[in-house]
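Running this now, will post back.
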Amino acid sequence: MEMLERVKKRIPDAMLKDEVLEEYISTISDRLCLRLGVGALPNLFESICVDAVVKMYRRTYYEGIK
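Update: finished.
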């Protein structure tokens, strides 16, 4: 299953366009690859990427709220 589809299942009420979610996925994937020292994200880390994208999405609208 594609990561975009997995993210959409986790946040079904998301009003974001696919291109924005794909950018989040790309950002998290790049960060994971840098930390892992690999050129492409291993399949086992896709779940971590999806979790991080969901957290990134949810955090976007809550920063600065007290």
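The chain has a mean pLDDT of 88. More later if anyone needs it.
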